[in-house]
Amino acid sequence: MSIPPLTDDSKTAKCIKCGAAIAPTAKFCLECGTAQANAAPASIKCIACGTEIPGFASFCSECGAERTASPPSSPERVGKPMKCRKCGAEAPPEWTLPICAACCVPTVKRNYGPLLLFGTVVVFFLVIVGIIISNGSSPTPPESPKVIAAQEAYNRAVKRVEDEADAGKVPMDGLVDRMSREGNKAYREAMNAPENTAPVTPVAAPEEPTISIPPYKTLNIKKPTNGSCVVDIQLPHEMEEPELIQISQALREHECAGLVPILLEFYLPKMKVDGGSWANAQYDPSSTGPIFDVQITGLKAKVIAKVRAYKSPLGEQLIGSWENDSNGSVYRIVQDSDSYFEERSSNPSLRPARQELKEIPAKSGRRFQVVGSESGDYDVISPDGTLRAYDREGFIKEFPKLKQ
After folding, report:
1. Which run of H or E residues covers position 159?
2. Cα(270)–Cα(267) distance, rounded to whole angstroms?
């Protein structure tokens, strides 16, 4: 069987084994029967206009586009005009802009899917971060009643110092430091107050007295350079500890405003200043706390009467009795056989404390040396009957003779 010869206008191909001329679309060689792996498809679509053309064609028979050319990226097409996807108008072949010449709508449909997906992911991420931050940060708790009370105490203390400065009761020098010191002190005292009690206000406002202050008279005021305050006060009569605290608070607000520490010495009528006080009060927040420490060192009148009425036991001879006018105690010198003793009585319910004496001749009077005294204490009974106390360094104090 003979193979018909190929016409001139047809396309030919060669067998991959024997080289015989075969049709481009032949799958097997007619001469040797070898399968042709590079056989062209029967037909393909033009990449420009989509028209089906033979598989062996190099150019499109409809638009003339080359088979291996890339698809056009603009509305410009070869041969076949582009139609608008909205109005349907055909753009002329020479139109190169990516928009319709009739309605100006973009001829290339844009794909916004990836952009929308990216935006959605970003928004979702920001929402999640906001939720995490809002859950992680706890709201600021409200201030406790104790903190509020402490702040109010601070403000009151600062206002009090400022008012006293305006009234001329305290100097203006160092006013800011004094206001800060008093305010911080009031704040600490309020914070340290027990929970079930009201904060302790160290100083009551002068314009709002809650109780009347007992009468007193200021004798001396000493203000050393170290910021302390020492005051001598005369009382009209004996007082109890609460009354002395009221007087002390009043002195702290006025005479000793802004000064720390404070030492107050209280004297009864006819008592000598610096000869020993009947009572004293001390204020130092570092040691005594926010209130005054009051000590009544003197004896009350009823107790003094009982002390004076004390009689020595039988067999003892009373040399003399003297009174300590600072606290009302009684000093006695008695003789028991050949020994002498000094007695100091301050409690009528107890036997007086005594220490042994030894009489030593002296020109100034009768001298009695305290046996075993490390500081060399001794007493001298002067011709006028007063008792003078000495030690190795010299004179200490004079005690008047007790009036029976």
Report:
1. helix 145-166
2. 8
| Residue range 122-160, pLDDT digits in tens | 888 898 888 888 765 555 556 678 778 888 888 888 888
Cis peptide, bond prior to residue 209, ω within 30 of zero: no
Report the relative pairing of strands 387-391 and 279-283 from DSSP bridges.
unpaired
Looking at residue 394, its amino acid is: G
Q: What's the pTM value of the predicted model, to 2 decimals?
A: 0.34
Residue type, 253: E
Sequential DSSP letters for 283-321: E-TTTTTTS-EEEE-SPPHHHHHHHHT--PPTT-EEEEE
Strand partners, 218: 233
pLDDT digits (tens, 9 = 90+) for 239-266: 888 888 889 888 888 888 888 888 898 8
Question: In the sheet that 229-234 helps form, which strands lie side by side, from edge to edge?
Answer: 217-222, 229-234, 262-267, 279-283, 293-296
Strands (E) across 195-338 are located at 217-222, 229-234, 262-267, 279-283, 293-296, 317-323, 330-336
Q: pLDDT tens for residues 362-390? A: 887 889 999 988 888 899 998 888 888 88
Indicate whether 293 pLDDT > 60.
Answer: yes
Strand-by-strand arrangement of the 394-399 sheet: 317-323, 330-336, 339-345, 353-360, 366-370, 378-381, 387-391, 394-399
**In Å, how far from its chain's centre is CA 256?**
31
Count of other CB atoms within 10 angstroms of residue 372: 9
pLDDT of residue 350: 60
Residue 379 and residue 396 in contact, taking contact as beta carbons nearer than 8 Å = no
> Can you tell me the distance from the alpha carbon of 251 to that of 218, in angstroms, rounded to the nearest whole number?
9
